[in-house]
Write a sequence for this structure.
């Protein structure tokens, strides 16, 4: 028996620690722990709600725009403030472009190397890699010359003895199964993806004024001035600049990322039977297309016990089913006392006890929906939309399953998406859906602007009495909600329930584990010294602890330990 | 300046760190200081990138030189300034990553290098933090180090042939994250 602790960063940084007890080649028990205090919301108490989004945008350096957006939506909800159509479309385009950027980066740069063994690439036949790539897609970047060029770069690294960026992979691990040619084509796309994620980010930059921290939001709309004849504003030139970027990013998602994810999933079909974990799913509706935010292009809802037939819709931020059902339990988190509180009543009083297996062991609270742990993220989004007959989700999911089944040689059904590999595949499905919707929302914006509507902002006014609001966003990592209480123009409470809080949640007062902890159970571990399989399941959730800091560690401390019990 | 509309400046000065966590906001503060005292040519762009994790690679690619300003975990007195070049930054032992924040300076430099369009010239100016507790604002020794760090950035730009011009009248250093919270009375006019 062995205990594996993966704790990449030192005590003072805000990261995720995973502990797993392994016996008989399988995980028997797991713990997820956030290692930094998450009370960042207290900074916002007493501040002007109109500037809260500037601060929340700094909660997380990777998910900047999503916290900015959820913040203004929460205040707008508290005030009952409508948002002009142009502002909705501009915000939607920012979200769509950010989502595409984020999913591309997750697949190629953050997780592909869990499945792709770079060190086999020198053995690959570039011509065969090109043929394989061309059989998956008619993307022009799949020539034999391109494959040979990338192979040469890898050969150069291997011969230099310095693997550089690839120095920390679990190379040669028995769970690595792709042919050298498939590894080569995946790495070629890893390099190409750098360019396309940047183009997606440029869309955010044009509309938001700057990246990574956008400047254009306001409670009540956006600050973009629209004047089709003025050079200084959002004019036709800029709108077509966006179109040009989307015309490059959308094909990359549909002709490279999506087919690659399907192929890799098909080569690892056993991972559709691993890592389901918590089979309750929560997604919030997003991409509003009316000023009151009651009509959405992506549906939200819940599914319980893995039964798609149980789907129940969440109609919007005013829906009591969502507003009343969320609590945060802190029984096993480093806060005073135990039990659960609604976010509007949420407290953040630290009580650090060190890591106690059966006591408190994390700074992350345990959000629960109607008392149950929920999985959030692209898989929840896809399942909730699929179960509600969402047309685009159905189109891309059915196509994905057809492709995966063809590679695997046996039928992979939609229920199999409830797994570690299902989370990777669902992210690619969601990216394809978002890419279609990005084109649609660009068209909606252009149509509205050319009809003569230049309105982008409704000024807020604040009542004396306390008002409560919730702003949500179906972010790249899943359902995000910000909960505010505003009194006399000042924030009196602020709680952010972030996607990784749902997924990295600890046990609750009934000792029910959170999604990571449950998904790691029964995970195979061939070699506890190289826990690649654990990283695959953890990475499938795309973890991101909000409010991480960034101090560069110049002394290279050890970070993964295995202790024989 | 949006990243898409501007021609890519050949030199980037990049402030790293979370402004909501005390001395981790050193990099963004040094950038605010630079803006307040100097004017920069179109060769130079100043970017407060926060804590971008892997997304940092976007700000490194296609540059001739980058100057990074950050808080560093090293042994020494709080406020001490350290300088690191490309070779030191990229030869540290790699570590497993879990979240997208984990790949940072080292990994993004290596990715840009592998992609073939990484900066040839890299300097990281770091300070040893005193406090990374939650809250906006720098501790005294780190605040004091910021002026020296800004001068080091200016010197480095001069050797790169892109010395900034001193402003005749410095503007206030007033980053939004260091302003006091609103008070109900300041809202009375509303």
């Amino acid at each position: 028996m062995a205990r594996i602790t993966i704790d990449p960063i030192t005590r003072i940084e805000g990261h995720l620690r995973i502990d797993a007890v392994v016996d008989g080649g399988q995980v028997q028990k797991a713990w997820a722990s956030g290692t930094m205090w998450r009370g960042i919301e207290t900074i916002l108490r007493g501040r002007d709600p109109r500037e809260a989004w500037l601060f929340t945008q700094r909660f997380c350096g990777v998910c900047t725009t999503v916290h900015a957006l959820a913040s203004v939506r929460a205040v707008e909800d508290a005030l009952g403030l409508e948002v002009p159509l142009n502002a909705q479309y501009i915000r939607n385009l920012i979200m769509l472009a950010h989502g595409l950027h984020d999913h591309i980066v997750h697949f190629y740069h953050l997780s592909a190397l869990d499945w792709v063994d770079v060190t086999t690439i020198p053995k690959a036949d570039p011509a065969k890699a090109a043929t394989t790539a061309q059989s998956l897609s008619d993307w022009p970047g799949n020539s034999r010359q391109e494959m040979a060029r990338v192979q040469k770069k890898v050969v150069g690294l291997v011969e230099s003895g310095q693997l550089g960026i690839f120095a920390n992979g679990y190379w040669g691990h028995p769970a690595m199964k792709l042919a050298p040619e498939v590894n080569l084509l995946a790495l070629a796309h890893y390099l190409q993806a750098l360019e396309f994620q940047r183009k997606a980010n440029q869309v955010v930059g044009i509309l938001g004024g700057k990246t990574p921290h956008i400047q254009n939001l306001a409670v009540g709309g956006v600050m973009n001035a629209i004047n089709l004849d003025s050079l200084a504003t959002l004019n036709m030139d800029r709108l077509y600049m966006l179109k040009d970027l989307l015309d490059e990013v959308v094909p990359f998602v549909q002709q490279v990322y999506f087919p690659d994810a399907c192929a890799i999933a098909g080569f690892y079909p056993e991972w559709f039977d691993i890592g389901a974990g918590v089979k309750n799913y929560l997604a919030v509706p997003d991409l509003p297309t009316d000023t009151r935010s009651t009509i959405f292009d992506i549906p939200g809802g819940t599914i319980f016990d893995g039964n798609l037939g149980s789907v129940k819709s969440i109609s919007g931020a005013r829906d009591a089913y969502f507003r009343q059902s969320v609590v945060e339990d802190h029984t096993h988190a480093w806060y005073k006392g135990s039990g659960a509180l609604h976010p509007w009543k949420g407290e953040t009083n630290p009580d650090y006890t060190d890591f106690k297996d059966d006591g408190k062991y994390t700074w992350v609270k345990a959000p629960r929906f109607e008392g149950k742990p929920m999985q959030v993220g692209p898989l929840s989004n896809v399942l909730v939309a699929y179960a509600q007959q969402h047309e685009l989700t159905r189109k891309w999911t059915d196509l994905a399953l057809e492709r995966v089944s063809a590679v695997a040689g046996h039928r992979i059904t939609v229920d199999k998406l409830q797994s570690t590999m299902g989370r990777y595949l669902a992210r690619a499905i969601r990216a394809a859906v978002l890419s279609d919707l990005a084109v649609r929302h660009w068209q909606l914006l252009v149509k509205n602007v050319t009809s003569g509507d230049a309105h982008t902002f409704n000024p807020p006014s604040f009542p004396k009495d306390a008002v409560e609001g919730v702003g949500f966003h179906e972010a790249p990592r899943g359902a995000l909600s910000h909960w505010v209480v505003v009194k006399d123009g000042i924030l009196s409470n602020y709680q952010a329930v972030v996607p990784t809080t749902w997924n990295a949640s600890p046990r609750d007062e009934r000792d029910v584990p959170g999604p990571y902890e449950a998904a790691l159970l029964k995970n195979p571990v061939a070699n506890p010294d190289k826990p690649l399989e654990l990283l695959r399941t953890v990475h499938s959730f795309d973890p991101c602890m909000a409010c991480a800091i960034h101090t560069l560690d110049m002394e290279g401390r050890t970070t993964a330990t295995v202790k024989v019990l | 300046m949006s990243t898409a509309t501007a021609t890519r400046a050949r030199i980037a000065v990049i402030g790293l760190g979370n402004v909501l966590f005390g001395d981790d906001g050193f990099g963004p503060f040094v950038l605010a200081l630079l803006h307040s005292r100097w004017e920069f040519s179109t060769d130079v762009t100043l970017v407060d990138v926060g804590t971008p994790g892997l997304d940092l690679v976007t700000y490194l690619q296609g540059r001739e030189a980058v100057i990074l300003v950050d808080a560093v975990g090293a042994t020494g007195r709080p406020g001490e300034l350290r300088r690191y070049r490309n070779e030191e930054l990229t030869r540290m032992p790699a570590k497993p990553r879990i979240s997208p924040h984990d790949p940072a300076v080292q990994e993004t430099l290596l990715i840009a290098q592998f992609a073939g369009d990484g900066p040839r010239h890299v300097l990281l100016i770091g300070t040893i933090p005193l406090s990374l507790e939650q809250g906006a604002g720098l501790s005294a020794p780190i605040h004091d180090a910021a002026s020296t760090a800004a001068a080091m950035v200016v010197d480095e730009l001069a050797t790169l042939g892109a010395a900034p011009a001193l402003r005749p009248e410095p503007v206030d250093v007033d980053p939004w994250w260091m302003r006091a919270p609103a008070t109900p009375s300041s809202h009375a006019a509303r």
In short: Chain B touches chain A through 68 residues (CB under 8 Å).
